[in-house]
Amino acid sequence: MGAYIIRRLIATIPVLLIVSLIIFSLIHLAPGDPAAIIVGTFATDEQYERVRADLGLDRPILVQLGLWFKDLVQGDLGTSLTSRTPVLKRIQSTILPTFAVAILTEIFAVTLAIPLGVLAAWKANTWIDRVVMVFSTIGYSVPLFWLGFIFIFIFAVKLGWAPAAGYTQPYEDLGDFFVKLILPVVSTGLVVMALIARMTRATVLEVLQEDYVRTARAKGLADTSVLLKHALRNAILPIITVIGVGFALLLGGVVVTENVFAIPGLGRLLVDAISRRDYPIIQGTILIISFIYVLVNLLVDISYAFLDPRIRYK
């Protein structure tokens, strides 16, 4: 197991390097110039060229790429072109809100989705199954930004049950931290919950058709025992895969949630950096998200060995 984990971690290095190259190429090929945004519309050509030289944008693309890779190998993600602060410091200040939203959303979604999926599979082709599936289909189809605005309008503006936007660090005020995350977590969680519930229903329904489940029923085992010890336990691997991939996607997908609810996370940082053509911030943020995605996939693979004794990594 240890050797397998080390090999997988080493394999992430070329993956991240390729991702870095793609990110760098796409960003520099896209239209827009950060120097022009910084100097403004009425700047002279001399002022514009001076800013480009200060930012290092007057150098050839290959030279800029080489310097960025050199800093990257040393653990330096560069310096923001607009704020002139280290990229790693900017990411560290915004990663906690993103993780908070992603983790709480995943907990909310999993807590509700798995029981609903199991119930729908157990009551297949009944009104309970149809209600759960209709709810899941709607939840998965509704645009996240629209759902967020609807939640703000109903529960914040009309009813006043929760704040419309904002974020408080958990070490400053834990109660206010949870209150301000209610709407973003629930609105985002409904979308994630729909996906997990559909996967849970499909996998559990397939397992319920197996011979050993029919044998367990014939032996007179209680419905709860059949569902939890036989059906859900043997259907858990695809569900864990969806949960893990969903969490990784949440870290990149909370861009919409953070902008709708004014949460100062990685999503807002990335959007602001794109609007200002702040290349180092864009590259560093996407690179961190890519690394987290690879790491989550590794953790999901490792969890298979603990959930299913037949799986062994050598």
Topology:
Layout: H1 2-29, H2 34-39, H3 45-55, H4 61-73, H5 87-122, H6 127-141, H7 144-158, H8 174-180, H9 182-207, H10 211-218, H11 223-234, H12 236-260, H13 266-275, H14 279-307
Helix pairs in contact: 1-14, 5-6, 5-9, 5-12, 5-14, 6-9, 7-9, 9-11, 9-12, 10-11, 12-13, 12-14, 13-14
Summarize the structure in words.
The chain has 14 helices and no strands. The protein has helices at residues 2-29, 34-39, 45-55, 61-73, 87-122, 127-141, 144-158, 174-180, 182-207, 211-218, 223-234, 236-260, 266-275, 279-307. With 314 residues, it is mainly α. Helix 9 runs antiparallel to helix 12 (236-260). The chain has two domains: 2-73, no CATH class; 92-307, Orthogonal Bundle (MetI-like fold), CATH 1.10.3720.
β-strand number: 0
Shape: globular
- What name is given to the CATH topology of the largest domain? MetI-like fold
Q: Which CATH C-level class of the largest domain is it?
A: Mainly Alpha
Rg, nearest Å: 24 Å
Main beta sheet: none
Which residues sit in consecutive blocks of at least 5 with pLDDT less than 50? none
Give the H and E element order: HHHHHHHHHHHHHH
- Number of contiguous helices: 14
- Supply the number of structural domains: 2
Quickly give the structural class.
mainly alpha
Mean pLDDT: 78
- Looking at the overall shape, the CATH architecture of the largest domain is Orthogonal Bundle
Fraction in helix? over 70%
**What percentage of amino acids are in beta strands?**
under 5%
